[in-house]
Amino acid sequence: MFVYMGLEMTSKKKAVVLVSGGLDSTTVLAIAHSLGYDCYSISFDYGQRHRAELQAATDIAKRQGVVAHKVVTLDLSTIGGSALTDPNIPVPEQETSGIPITYVPARNTVFLSIALGWAEVLEAQDIFIGVNAVDYSGYPDCRPAFISAFETMANLATKLGTEGRQLTIHAPLIDLTKGEIINKGMALGVDYAETVSCYQADGAGRACGKCDSCRLRKEGFAQAGVDDPTPYQS
């Protein structure tokens, strides 16, 4: 048995890992691998404007040696309400207060629910997600209280949970700064040049350098004291 970030590992187990293709989720996948899990990664084609992240997620999953990678299609643009799913709402390029218009209504609730369903099929009791409550954009579904509440629900609502096989939602980055996340990922061999975080990345995955996600990413590399490997649009 060994312990890493509060997680006790006794034998190789299955884990479902949410992978968007961005910096945080790529780090979480590397963490899950380092813990000895057989990783099953899942991404979502949800009508987002920054679709280059989907190819990045697929490539990253392959390079990190997941057992299987699944891309689930569900069109959240049909309900709109976010600059990430409605092309008529511009992506802000200046810092704003409150919950930003890039918040996608109920996105993490929906994503975790589908990941939970796949976990049940796989009989995997562990789900990893890269939410962060320190350097984040003010999204309500990135907070510890949300993760705790979802875990409670997961154990009430599933066959695994009712049979006494405890389901755990792991959010190992939740209390880390972006710089700390980058340093942890680099120690695990993550190549951040492969990741796509920008809310309005072009087809080649090049970042705008202006949106909130780009700003947080830039600040993270500065905090970590390493060069920013992000390819930017001219």
TrEMBL record:
Transmembrane segments: none annotated. Its cofactor is Zn(2+). Binds 1 zinc ion per subunit. It is an enzyme of class 6 (ligase). It catalyses: 7-carboxy-7-carbaguanine + NH4(+) + 2 ATP = 7-cyano-7-carbaguanine + 2 AMP + 2 diphosphate + 2 H(+). ATP binds at residues 19-29. Keywords: ATP-binding, Ligase, Metal-binding, Nucleotide-binding, Queuosine biosynthesis, Zinc. GO terms for molecular function: ATP binding; ligase activity, forming carbon-nitrogen bonds; zinc ion binding. It comes from the Bacteria. The keyword Lyase does not apply. It holds the Pfam family QueC. Zn(2+) binds at residues 198, 208, 211, 214. Pathway: Purine metabolism; 7-cyano-7-deazaguanine biosynthesis. Its EC number is 6.3.4.20. GO terms for biological process: tRNA queuosine(34) biosynthetic process. Catalyzes the ATP-dependent conversion of 7-carboxy-7-deazaguanine (CDG) to 7-cyano-7-deazaguanine (preQ(0)). HAMAP family: QueC. Belongs to the QueC family. This is 7-cyano-7-deazaguanine synthase. It comes from Halioxenophilus aromaticivorans. The gene is queC.
